[in-house]
Amino acid sequence: MRRRTAGSDDHVAGVPARYVAAPASTGEAAEVLGAAAADELAVVIRGGGTKLEWGLPPRRLDLIVDTHRLTGVVEHAAGDLITVVRAGTALAALDFGPQRLALESPLPGATVGGALAANTSGPRRLLHGTARDLVIGMTVVRPDGTVTRSGGKVVKNVAGYDLGKLFTGAYGTLGLITECAFRLHPVAPAGAVVLREADGPEVGPLLAAIRAEQVVPSAVELDRPGPGPATIAVLLEGTAEGVRERAARLEKVLGGTTGDLPPWWGAYPWAPGGTGVKLTAALSRVPELLAAAPEVPVRGSAGAGVLYAAPTGDVPRTVELLRAAAVRAGGHAVVLTAPPEVRDAVDMWGPVPGLDLMRRVKDRFDPGHRFAPGRFVGGI
Amino acid sequence: MTPLEEVTAALRATLGADRVVTDRQELRTYECDGLAHHRVVPGLVVLPRDARECALTVRACARAGVPFVARGSGTGLSGGALPHAEGVLVVTSKMRDIVELAPRDERAVVEPGVINLHVTKAAAAHGYYYAPDPSSQQICSIGGNVAENSGGAHCLKYGFTANHVLGAQIVTPDGDLVELGGRAPDTPGYDLLGAFVGSEGTLGIATRVTVRLTRLPESVRTLLAAFPTTDEAGAATSAIIAAGVVPAAIEMMDALAIEAAEAAVACGYPRGAGAVLIVELDGPAAEVAAQFAQVTAMCEENGAFELRIAGDEAERALFWKGRKSAFAAVGRISPDYIVQDGVIPRTALPEVLRRIGEVSRAHGVRVANVFHAGDGNLHPLVLFDAATDGETDRAETVSGAIIDLCIEYGGSITGEHGVGTDKAKYMPRMFTGDDLETMHLLRCAFDPAGLANPGKVFPTPRLCGEVPRRHAATDPPAAAEIF
């Protein structure tokens, strides 16, 4: 494996590391983490580095474990619609021909492991679910260096605890994901996008109308660049005949037009270095998220109850407004990323139910609290 | 007083005598679930009316150090709800309220005792249904589905319980009520809900479940195709998947399973079939029409000698009747049988079926095959007569050999029935000691005393131990010492 003393770029949210190690296999990763455990080093995992500024800075940091050599597709069983991929592989580098991994990253350069650890999702989450629905097996090296697998390589499997779900979205606080098995979906032969511009009060009824139609969209996305109308974009995928018929029906119901994927499709609304907030709500209450701060750029998977906001100006005040609206609407507001001055002024994670159980999980998996300490909810 | 007597007295006082069953005869009615050859009379049965009563029950157990087992409708096939002789069986059958139906949010909130099919029935008026449909859906409970991560014929396209549960209120093994997940997606923090679903009652009891409602499909079309052997039926299945079609369901039955179904429910499947496939497509009408033509052609190309297309709901129900009654139907052709549940990569189907045939012949034990062909979930039915000397043992051997085949081909020891009591012994064949120890870490986080459904899932009893004391950061070592 490769290891070196950290350089000036080797920091996490401003906290410098002392060493960097780049294992090229699960076995090497186990050696690195075993050694790090013996020396009680604080560890942060780095994939493509696209989300290192997310969450809170680590309370301490000695070692960055970089996954850029832990790459490649181990297996693609097309007839079984599954793949096994190493965690450092860039999502954008995956090519399964007539099949796809329906895990789309809003951030170019993101790795499989990073997308899982931060639980990011793209537009197709509406039809195919998020990482937790796509992962069918996972290999993880625990903070003490133990290699452990859960799940398997078949989609249908209820043997043992589904630990893949536990590690997904855990921000690297429970161990290092080295390899994942995913279910794949066939790429549909045809697709169409139906677009509709909508003023604030129209959004709710339009989203409800899309749900009421039996057209089974792959994605229902929304973009509101600032004060003024929003655009709703509905992606339909299937056979050529089927898509034509569904698109025509939806055009009529929405009073929309068929067009191309808009340039904002699947991207976060904030600029690098800006503040990014993830908002969730019960499906019928998504419009309340839009109304809470009408001047703030908002974009995301409106059909799935998830929006991303890019507040500027008095960010702490806006976050407060957005959070209050999200909580009223049955959801949450999480500040995913923010410049240091904002990070210090806001509650990044907001209220989290079940925190006591989460701490107990952390204590069991990482009793020394060495993995990404302090980056996650409740100071975990 | 024994610890169990303490709990009994405490619950009589707090919940009232009508919530507590102590009569030996009545207790016996709870001695097994769907895995009827494992029987244990529970020490005490408690029937809580709501989450609070459920939490009080568990808290009383926690205080006295008494194990508890949750039970819904008792239809599980792996002995997950097998009672504990010195423990409390918490039966959720009095918690049957659909608390809220919110079609606008595509959600329903239900109590754990609510019957699976009742959710669909309640939602249907609004144009929705609850997608996971285990064969027992007319009687199985949502709480049991959550515990077992139940699947069903349609999970090929729609996924399992885990993909349809958005939130749950649970009673932790300490007796605390905790909310996991919620009505909106992506709750921040660890996905404890994802880990809880399918944990077979070893992490606590769900007292309220938020499920996803799915929009009813515009069109459903069902095809019954008869093939000379399972090889051709398997090839047709592969062709359908390779063409990028994801049917709602692809089910297969072999000759012996068909014979049993005919004897039991006279489903009238084509005569002389060595295998039948039921293929169901659903979705927008235009999509279904286009794909149905493809599927029909692929069945014909792969040797189907008869195709029937359901003309109406009654005919569709008849196609499914043979399949859904297959387990019980086997009782018509054999006095005893084991329902096995294993998974293989779908592409290995023809090979594994041949190997199962070899094992069956070698031991002189008949095996009827019923399975979810689309996702490689096998349900071999191992037939035997317990009254004949040695047959039970031979059947167990064949059943175990089938599980070994599933592991050999990279599959799983259970696709939807769960590990429970029945398969705990197979867990070390699929997972390493480290894998199991890691799963046990989660168990210890929830239940350090090991009171929640002990003896299930894990092959050997394990103790949790204290959480190691956190180390203070010491002086960092020099780089050279690290690796």
Task: State the main characteristics.
A: 380 residues, alpha+beta, Uridine Diphospho-n-acetylenolpyruvylglucosamine Reductase, domain 3, Alpha-Beta Plaits, eight-stranded antiparallel β-sheet, five-stranded antiparallel β-sheet, 11 helices, B: 483 residues, Uridine Diphospho-n-acetylenolpyruvylglucosamine Reductase, domain 2, Vanillyl-alcohol Oxidase, Chain A, domain 3, 3 domains, 19 strands, 35% helix, 19% strand, FAD-bd_PCMH-like_sf (chain A), Glycolate oxidase FAD binding subunit (chain A), FAD-bd_PCMH (chain A), FAD binding (chain A)
- Strand order, largest beta sheet of chain A: 17-14-16-15-19-20-18-21
| CATH architecture classification of the largest domain in chain B | 3-Layer(aba) Sandwich
- The counted number of beta strands of chain B is 19
Q: Tally the beta strands of chain A.
A: 21
Question: In terms of structural class, how would the helical and strand content of chain A be classed?
Answer: alpha+beta
- Domains of chain A, number: 3
Helix content of chain A: 25-40%
Shape of chain B: globular
CATH fold category name of the largest domain in chain A: Uridine Diphospho-n-acetylenolpyruvylglucosamine Reductase, domain 3
In the CATH hierarchy, what is the superfamily of the largest domain in chain B? FAD-linked oxidases, C-terminal domain
Indicate the low-confidence ranges of chain B by residue numbers: 472-483
CATH class of the largest domain in chain B: Alpha Beta
Oligomer: heterodimer
Which sheet architecture does the biggest sheet of chain A show? 8 strands, antiparallel
| pLDDT < 50 runs, ≥5 residues of chain A | none
The CATH topology of the largest domain in chain B corresponds to: Vanillyl-alcohol Oxidase, Chain A, domain 3
Domain unit count of chain B? 3
Number of helical elements of chain A: 11
Greatest chain-chain interface?
A-B, 110 and 102 residues
The CATH class name of the largest domain in chain A reads Alpha Beta
Provide the CATH architecture of the largest domain in chain A. Answer: 2-Layer Sandwich
Protein name (chain A): Glycolate oxidase FAD binding subunit
GO molecular function, one term (chain A): FAD binding
Keywords (chain A): FAD, Flavoprotein
InterPro entries (chain A): FAD-bd_PCMH, FAD-bd_PCMH-like_sf, FAD-bd_PCMH_sub2, FAD-linked_Oxase-like_C, Oxid_FAD_bind_N
